[in-house]
């Protein structure tokens, strides 16, 4: 019996803007929160000011569209809303 395929997160970041550390920190936050609920977080080098987060190919957040970077709390909520909407994120859910 095969296990269901776990979702995969991809963070594409701009190498020209030196956003690797920001992308890696976001990846760490997601892996810590969803350690048994996601298969992986991939860091994808890009250019042109890109900072996009995708879940199984679906765009969750775009810096260009939003005009800002995502907050850690916000990104966790976006991922949670797609993989386990009933899940409580503790302090990340509080206003």
UniProtKB/TrEMBL annotation:
Record Pfam families: Rdx (PF10262)
Key word Transcription present: no
Keywords associated with the record: Redox-active center
Superkingdom, taxonomy of origin: Bacteria
InterPro entries registered for this protein in UniProt: Selenoprotein_Rdx-typ, Thioredoxin-like_sf
KW Ribosomal protein (keyword) present: no
The protein's name in its UniProt record: SelT/selW/selH selenoprotein
Originating organism: Methylobacillus flagellatus (strain ATCC 51484 / DSM 6875 / VKM B-1610 / KT)
């Amino acid at each position: 019996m095969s296990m269901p395929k776990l979702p995969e997160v991809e963070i594409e970041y701009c190498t020209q803007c030196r956003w690797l550390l920001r992308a890696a920190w976001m990846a760490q936050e997601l892996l810590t929160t969803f350690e048994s609920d996601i298969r992986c977080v991939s860091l994808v080098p890009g250019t042109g000011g890109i900072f996009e987060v995708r879940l199984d190919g679906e765009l969750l957040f775009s810096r260009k569209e939003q005009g800002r970077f995502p907050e850690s709390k916000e990104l966790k909520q976006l991922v949670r809303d797609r993989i386990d909407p009933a899940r409580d994120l503790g302090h990340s859910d509080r206003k």
